[in-house]
C-alpha cells in the first residue's frame, strides 16, 4: 500500500504543480471603506506579470494562475501604492485598503477634459507601456496605428518627418489635440504638426483618444476625435535612461532622459534630450529633428505646481506633392532612369535637372506651461494652467521660370535689350506666431454619486505671414531678400463648460454644456498677391447628454448625443476659388451607443455611431502649394459605423488584441466644379459642374481593422505580430461613378468619368521582438527589433487628384504617397 500511495503521490505532484487557481479580492479606501474602481493591479512572478483593474464595486480577479510565489502590486490615482507578497497553493482572497496620498496627483490637470471609466463616451486609453513598446523613432501617429478607426500616413514614407492620422475618416485638422489640457492644434490651420515636437512620445505618460465629439475640451471642436495627452508625471526614484535606435533609410534616434526622483520630500526634476535623423523612403525627403523636454515640480500636501518647457526643431526636405501617377504607373521608368518610381520626388528639381539642396521646411516651436493643482477641500479641487507657445520658421523652394509680375509684383526689367518677365528663382515663405492663454477647471464632488466640473479657457493667437525672394537666376532689379507679401492674423478663442455625472442606482446620468466664442481676423497682402481682409466671429453652443447603465461589476451599456460646432480654418478662406461663396461654420450631431466589458481573460467594447453633418468642410482631394488639403462646404453628409475592440488572454503566454470598424460615409447632392480647358476663355467662362445624388466622402474607408498577437515564450521576452487592413479610399467625393448631371460646353465624354481616383486597399504586417535583462550596475537593458511591412507590400496611404476637362474629355491627374516596403528599426534602452 505504501508503494501504491507513493506512486499515486508521484503522479499527482505534477498535476498539482500544473493546477491553476484564482486570486481575487476587493480594493477600498482604508479610511472610509469605499470601493475604489479602476485601481491597477499587477501580479508579478518569475515568469509573467498579468494585470487587471478593479471593478465598480472594487472587486478584482485573476484566473488560471499557477501555484508559486507572487507579488501583488496595487496603484490608484491619489493613493499610495502598495504591494502584498504571498505563496499561492490554492484559491486565495487578497483584500487591500489604500491610504490617500499626502500629495495631490498630477492627473487632476487633465481630468477636466477626459472621460471617466463609466462615461457614456467612446474612448480608448493608452498607458505609457502601450506607447513606448513601438517608440523607436517614428512619429506619434504611427504609435497610435493600432487604435480603432485610425489610418496613418507619412510624406517621406517611413514614419519620420511629416506624418498624419485620420480617425473615422476625419483628418488631423478635425482632431482636437491637447497636451495637459492645453491646445496643440495650430489656431489658424487647425492641424497638429507632430513633426514640430520630435520624440515627444518619450515624454508622454498616458493618452486618451475619444472618438466622435467626446467631452468638452479646449481648442477647436472635435469633429472626428480628440487626443488628450498627459506628459510625464512624478517618479519618486532617481533614474537615467539612454535610448538609441537605428534602422532602414539611415534612420537614427538618440535619446537621453534623467530624473532626480523626489528631493527633500517635495521637489522633482526631469529632462530629456533627443535627436532623430532619417533619409526617408522617398528621394530627397530626409529629416533632421531635435527636441528637448524639461520639467520641474513642487509637491505639497494639497497642491502641485509644475513647470514644463519643451521645444522641437525640424528641418525636413519637402515631399508634400506625392508621386505623379504617370511616374508610379510607368512600367519602363526604372529601366530608363535607373530609379525606383515609387520613390520619385519632383520637388526641388532645377531647370538643369540637378536637385536644389535647400528645398526644406525649417521650423522651431517652443512651448512653456505652468500647471497648478490645488485640493481645496476633500470635496473641491482646482486646476489651472498658463501657457505660451512661440513658433517661427520658413519653407524654401526653387521655382522654375516663375512669372515675376503676376506672382511677386516685380515689374519686368530690360537688360541688354532683353525684357525679363520670367526667371528661375528661390523664395522663402515665413510664419512667425505667438499663442498664449489660460485654462482652468474646478472639480466638485460633494458625494460619491455626484461629480461636477466647471472648466474653460481663453487663448489668443497672433501670427505674421510673409515671403521673400532670396535668389533670381537673372537680375530682376530687386533688393536682397525682397519681401513680396505680408499679412497678419489674430484669433481669440474663449470657452466655458460645465459637466456633471450623477449616479442613480445602476444608472449614471451625464450632462455637458459648453459655450465657445471665436473671433478671427486676417488682413494684408496674401501669398497669391491678393489683398485679404477677413473678419469673422462665431458663437457656438455645444450640449452633450448621455446615460450609462451598469449591468453588473464588469459590464455596462451607454448611449449619448452630442452637438459640435467648428469654425473654418485659414486655408478655407485663402484657398477657395473666387467664384465660390465664403466658407461657413459646420455643425455636427453625434449619436453614440455602446457596450463595454472588462475581465481578467477578456476585455472589449462594441459601439455604433451616427455623425450627421451640416455644412461639413469636406476634402476636395486637391492640395494647396504647401501640401494642405483643400476643403469646401457641403450641405448634407454623414458618417455611420460600428467599432469593435477587444483583448483576450488565450494562455498566460499568449494574448490577442484586435479592433475593427465597418462604416458608411456619404455626401448627398455633391457638386464638383472642373476647369474646362476645352474653350479659349476657360479662365472667365463657367466651369464644368458635375452633380452626384450620393457618393462617398473622400479618404473614408468602409473597413479598418487592426490586430496584435503577442507571445512571451521566455521570461521578459516577447514576440508580437501586428496587422493592419484598410479598405479602398476615394481621393475625392465622387466615388468614381457616373454623374447624374453634367453642365458643360462642349459635353464631357460620358465614359471618361470612371477613372482611377482612389487608393487601393492594403493589408500590412509588422513583427516586433523585445527582450529585457539586467546586469550589475544597469537596472534594465531592453532590446527591441521592429520589422515594418514584413511582407514588403507596395501600397499608398494618401493621395491627391486634380481632374479637369480638355477637348471635351475629363482627365485625371493623380498623385500618390507610397509607403516604405520592408524596413526595420532596432533599439537598445539602458535604464539606470
TrEMBL record:
GO terms for biological process: siderophore transmembrane transport. One of its GO terms (cellular component) is cell outer membrane. Pfam families: CarbopepD_reg_2, Plug, TonB_dep_Rec_b-barrel. Residues 1-19 form the signal peptide. InterPro entries: Beta-barrel_TonB (IPR000531), Beta-barrel_TonB_sf (IPR036942), CarboxyPept-like_regulatory (IPR008969), Plug_dom (IPR012910), Plug_dom_sf (IPR037066), TonB-dep_rcpt-like (IPR039426). Residues 307-790 form the TonB-dependent receptor-like beta-barrel domain. It is found in: Cell outer membrane. Coiled coil: none annotated. GO terms for molecular function: siderophore uptake transmembrane transporter activity. Residues 118-225 form the TonB-dependent receptor plug domain. Keywords: Cell outer membrane, Membrane, Receptor, Signal, TonB box, Transmembrane, Transmembrane beta strand, Transport. It is a multi-pass membrane protein. Belongs to the TonB-dependent receptor family. This is TonB-dependent receptor. It comes from Mucilaginibacter galii.
Amino acid at each position: 500500500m505504501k508503494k501504491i500511495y507513493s506512486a499515486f503521490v508521484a503522479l499527482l505532484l505534477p498535476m498539482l504543480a500544473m493546477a491553476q487557481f484564482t486570486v481575487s479580492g476587493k480594493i477600498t479606501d482604508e479610511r472610509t471603506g469605499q470601493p475604489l474602481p479602476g485601481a491597477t493591479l499587477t501580479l508579478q512572478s518569475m515568469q509573467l506579470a498579468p494585470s487587471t483593474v478593479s471593478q465598480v464595486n472594487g472587486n478584482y480577479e485573476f484566473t488560471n494562475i499557477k501555484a508559486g510565489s507572487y507579488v501583488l502590486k496595487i496603484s490608484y490615482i491619489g493613493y499610495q501604492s502598495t504591494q502584498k507578497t504571498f505563496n499561492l497553493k490554492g484559491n486565495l482572497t487578497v483584500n487591500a485598503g489604500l491610504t490617500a496620498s499626502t500629495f495631490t496627483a498630477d492627473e487632476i490637470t487633465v481630468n477636466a477634459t477626459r472621460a471617466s471609466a463609466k462615461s457614456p463616451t467612446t474612448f480608448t486609453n493608452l498607458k505609457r507601456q502601450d506607447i513606448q513598446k513601438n517608440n523607436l523613432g517614428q512619429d506619434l501617429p504611427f504609435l497610435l496605428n493600432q487604435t480603432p478607426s485610425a489610418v496613418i500616413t507619412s510624406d517621406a514614407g517611413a514614419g519620420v518627418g511629416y506624418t498624419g492620422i485620420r480617425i473615422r475618416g476625419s483628418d488631423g485638422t478635425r482632431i482636437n489635440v491637447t497636451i495637459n489640457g492645453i491646445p496643440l492644434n495650430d489656431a489658424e490651420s487647425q492641424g497638429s504638426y507632430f513633426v514640430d515636437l520630435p520624440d515627444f512620445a518619450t515624454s508622454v505618460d498616458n493618452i486618451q483618444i475619444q472618438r466622435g465629439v467626446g467631452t468638452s475640451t479646449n481648442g477647436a471642436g472635435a469633429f472626428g476625435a480628440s487626443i488628450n495627452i498627459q506628459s510625464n508625471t512624478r517618479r519618486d526614484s532617481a533614474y537615467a535612461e539612454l535610448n538609441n535606435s537605428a534602422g532602414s533609410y539611415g534612420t537614427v534616434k538618440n535619446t537621453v532622459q534623467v530624473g532626480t526622483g523626489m528631493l527633500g520630500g517635495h521637489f522633482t526634476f526631469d529632462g530629456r534630450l533627443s535627436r532623430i535623423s532619417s533619409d526617408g523612403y522617398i528621394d530627397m525627403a530626409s529629416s533632421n529633428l531635435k527636441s528637448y523636454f524639461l520639467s520641474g515640480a513642487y509637491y505639497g500636501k494639497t497642491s502641485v505646481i509644475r513647470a514644463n518647457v519643451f521645444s522641437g526643431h525640424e528641418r525636413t526636405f519637402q515631399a508634400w506633392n506625392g508621386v505623379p501617377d504617370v511616374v508610379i504607373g510607368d512600367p519602363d521608368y526604372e529601366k530608363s532612369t535607373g530609379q525606383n518610381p515609387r520613390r520619385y520626388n519632383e520637388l526641388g528639381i532645377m531647370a538643369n535637372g540637378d536637385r536644389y539642396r535647400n528645398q526644406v521646411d525649417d521650423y522651431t516651436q517652443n512651448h512653456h506651461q505652468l500647471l497648478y493643482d490645488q485640493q481645496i477641500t476633500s470635496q473641491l479641487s482646482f486646476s489651472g494652467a498658463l501657457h505660451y507657445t512661440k513658433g517661427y520658421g520658413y519653407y524654401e523652394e526653387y521655382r522654375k521660370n516663375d512669372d515675376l509680375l503676376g506672382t511677386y509684383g516685380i515689374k519686368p526689367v530690360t537688360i541688354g535689350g532683353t525684357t525679363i518677365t520670367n526667371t528661375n528663382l528661390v523664395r522663402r515663405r515665413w510664419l512667425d506666431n505667438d499663442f498664449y492663454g489660460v485654462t482652468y477647471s474646478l472639480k466638485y464632488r460633494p458625494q460619491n454619486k455626484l461629480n461636477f466640473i466647471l472648466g474653460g479657457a481663453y487663448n489668443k493667437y497672433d501670427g505674421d505671414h510673409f515671403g521673400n525672394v532670396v535668389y533670381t537666376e537673372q537680375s530682376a532689379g530687386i533688393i536682397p531678400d525682397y519681401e513680396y507679401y505680408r499679412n497678419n492674423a489674430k484669433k481669440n478663442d474663449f470657452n466655458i463648460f460645465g459637466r456633471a455625472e450623477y449616479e442613480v442606482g445602476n444608472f449614471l446620468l451625464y450632462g455637458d454644456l459648453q459655450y465657445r466664442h471665436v473671433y478671427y481676423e486676417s488682413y494684408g497682402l496674401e501669398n497669391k498677391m491678393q489683398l485679404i481682409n477677413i473678419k469673422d466671429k462665431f458663437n457656438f453652443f455645444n450640449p452633450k447628454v448621455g446615460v450609462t447603465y451598469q449591468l453588473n461589476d464588469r459590464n455596462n451599456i451607454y448611449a449619448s448625443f452630442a452637438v459640435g460646432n467648428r469654425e473654418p480654418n485659414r486655408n478655407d478662406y485663402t484657398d477657395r476659388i473666387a467664384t465660390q461663396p465664403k466658407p461657413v461654420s459646420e455643425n455636427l450631431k453625434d449619436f453614440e451607443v455602446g457596450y463595454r466589458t472588462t475581465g481578467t481573460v477578456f476585455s472589449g467594447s462594441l459601439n455604433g455611431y451616427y455623425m450627421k453633418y451640416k455644412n461639413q468642410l469636406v476634402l476636395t482631394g486637391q492640395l494647396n502649394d504647401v501640401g494642405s488639403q483643400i476643403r469646401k462646404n457641403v450641405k448634407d453628409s454623414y458618417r455611420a459605423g460600428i467599432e469593435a475592440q477587444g483583448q483576450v488572454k488565450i494562455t498566460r503566454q499568449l494574448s490577442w488584441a484586435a479592433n475593427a470598424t465597418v462604416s458608411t460615409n456619404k455626401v448627398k447632392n455633391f457638386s464638383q466644379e472642373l476647369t474646362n480647358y476645352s474653350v479659349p476663355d476657360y479662365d472667365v467662362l463657367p466651369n464644368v459642374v458635375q452633380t452626384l445624388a450620393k457618393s462617398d466622402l473622400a479618404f473614408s474607408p468602409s473597413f479598418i481593422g487592426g490586430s496584435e498577437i503577442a507571445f512571451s515564450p521566455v521570461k521578459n521576452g516577447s514576440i508580437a505580430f501586428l496587422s493592419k487592413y484598410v479598405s479602398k479610399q476615394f481621393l475625392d467625393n465622387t466615388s468614381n461613378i457616373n454623374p447624374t448631371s453634367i453642365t458643360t460646353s462642349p459635353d464631357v465624354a460620358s465614359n471618361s468619368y470612371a477613372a482611377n481616383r482612389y487608393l487601393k486597399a492594403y493589408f500590412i504586417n509588422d513583427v516586433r521582438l523585445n527582450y529585457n535583462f539586467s546586469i550589475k550596475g544597469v537596472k534594465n537593458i531592453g532590446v527591441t527589433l521592429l520589422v515594418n511591412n514584413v511582407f514588403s507590400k507596395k501600397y499608398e496611404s494618401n493621395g491627391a487628384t486634380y481632374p479637369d476637362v480638355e477637348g471635351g474629355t475629363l482627365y485625371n491627374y493623380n498623385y500618390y504617397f507610397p509607403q516604405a516596403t520592408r524596413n526595420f528599426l532596432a533599439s537598445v534602452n539602458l535604464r539606470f
